[in-house]
Amino acid sequence: MATTSDIRNGLCINYNHDIYKVIEFLHVKPGKGPAFVRTKLKSVTTGKVIDNTFSAGHKIDDVRVETHRFQYLYNDGEFYHFMNEVDYTQIRLLEAALDMPSLLKEGEVVTVLINTETNEPLSVEMPASVILEVTHTEPGVKGNTATNATKPATVETGHELNVPLFINEGDKIKIETDKGTYKERVKE
Q1: Which residues make up the CATH 2.40.50.140 domain(s) of the chain?
Q2: Tell me, what's the pLDDT at 144?
Q3: Are strands 121-125 and 90-94 parallel, antiparallel or unpaired?
Q4: Per-residue b/e over 78-110, b at no fewer than 16 CB within 10 Å?
Q5: pLDDT one-digit tens code per residue, 82-104
Q6: In CATH terms, is domain 2-62 a member of 2.30.30.30?
Q7: Which residues lie below 8 Å from residue 51, measured CB to CB, with a gap of 6+?
Q8: Can you give 103-148 as a three-state secondary structure string?
Q9: Contact 34/56 with Cβ under 8 angstroms?
Q10: Superfamily classification of domain 65-125
Q11: Whole-model pTM?
Q12: What is d(CA 2, CA 14) in angstroms, rounded to the nearest whole number?
């Protein structure tokens, strides 16, 4: 059993007959009234995100998890398949267990949270950023860079995002996985 002071990003808890992962939290101590913790929880089974507020000192049923490194192999429409880097066992997960499936490239190494009691995979943690190649974007207009103008682009995994005008097809770019946004161009 844990309390609200143990809440942190990535913590998995039993809540409302399901397992949820804390994706955001904020400890609030108002001038009047008791302290509380405002959280954003994501179901590891359905992918549904809910907002919840716990009063300070509230008991939380945390789930013990282990992290293992897995390599992404492929997806067959419904399931995403991963291979353990140590013993080469394979697992498959529903798309709901992934935070940003549109940024997964074959061969990418991710961290998988596994419930130690049931030995079943709960969710996938992507690296902070990934490097992908731009496969489609309109050419930038010369001299139109006075403002922070952006244009739509598609990367090799099919993910669509806005990029600066100087990005061209074939460029490799770094993308933040938590928001799915452009970070910088990568020189080779």
Answers
A1: 65-125, 129-186
A2: 59
A3: unpaired
A4: eebebeeeeeeeebebeeebbbbbebbeeebeb
A5: 999 999 999 988 887 787 888 88
A6: yes
A7: 38, 39, 40, 41
A8: HCCCCCEEEEEEECCCCCEEEEECCCEEEEEEEEECCCCCCCCCCC
A9: yes
A10: Nucleic acid-binding proteins (2.40.50.140)
A11: 0.72
A12: 11
- Give the burial class of 180: count Cβ atoms within 10 A of its Cβ; 0-12 exposed, 13-18 middle, 19 or more buried: middle
**pLDDT of the residue at 142:** 64
CATH 2.30.30.30 residue ranges in the chain? 2-62
For 30, list phi and psi in degrees, rounded to 5.
-70, 160
Strand partners, 26: 38
**Integer CA distances (angstroms), 75 to 55, 61, 101, 107, 149, in order:** 41, 33, 10, 12, 35
**169, 136 contact by CB (below 8 A):** yes
Is residue 101 within a helix (H) or strand (E), and if so which, with residue range?
none
- At 1, the amino acid letter reads M
In the CATH scheme, what architecture does the domain 129-186 have? Beta Barrel (2.40)
**Is residue 117 packed enough to be buried (19+ CB in 10 Å), middle (13-18) or exposed (0-12)?**
exposed
Helix (H, G, I), strand (E, B) or coil at 29: coil
